[in-house]
Amino acid sequence: MRPILLFSAVAFAAGATAASAQNPPPTPAPAVQAQRAGIKLSDVAGTWEGKSMVGPKDSVVVTYMITATADPKGWAITFPGRAPIPMRIVATGGDSIVTESGPYASILRPGQTVTTRTTSHYTGDTATGTFEAHYASGDVIRGKVVATRKK
After folding, report:
1. What is the reported pLDDT for 151?
2. Inter-CA distances, 32 with 49, 93, 121, Å
3. Taking the model in full, what pTM does it have?
4. Which segments of the chain does DSSP mark as H helices, in order?
5. Judging by DSSP bridges, how do beta strands 46-54 and 140-149 pair with one another?
6. Residue 73 carries which DSSP code?
7. Among residues 54, 56, 47, 58, which one has the least CA distance to residue 127?
8. Judging by beta carbons within 10 Å of its beta carbon (0-12, 13-18, 19+), is residue 4 exposed, middle or buried?
9. Which residue in 29, 77, 78, 137 has its CB near the most CB atoms, within 10 A?
10. Domains and CATH numbers, the chain
């Protein structure tokens, strides 16, 4: 009796495996997010006037101009009285672009160098987001950014 039960169990398992191989489960529908294309650099090309803010009252600590192009190598940030600083595009996705600049001479801390990483969320001619400024000394400052595309 045992050999018959064992043979039946093996035959059932083999049949179930063959049936599932012939009838794979349906592919799930793609997510809505996957259907929507992410942001393109050309979507935000232009000149942007921006400001960085820190603290509980969002005190403006620096203003700047960003030149954004469809080519990732054409991005630059320019602080008042300074030469343009190249920006690197670190990532893009959804409505966001992550950039990095530096190291360059700090505006807020003379004699120190800083590298900044900014995450900006774009809606039309407005960008909002956050930044992290990493100083050579090891200090890190975090804050908010707001920018408007010039017409």
Report:
1. 81
2. 33, 14, 19
3. 0.74
4. 2-22, 32-35
5. antiparallel
6. G
7. 47
8. exposed
9. 77
10. 2-35 (no CATH), 41-149 (2.40.128.120)
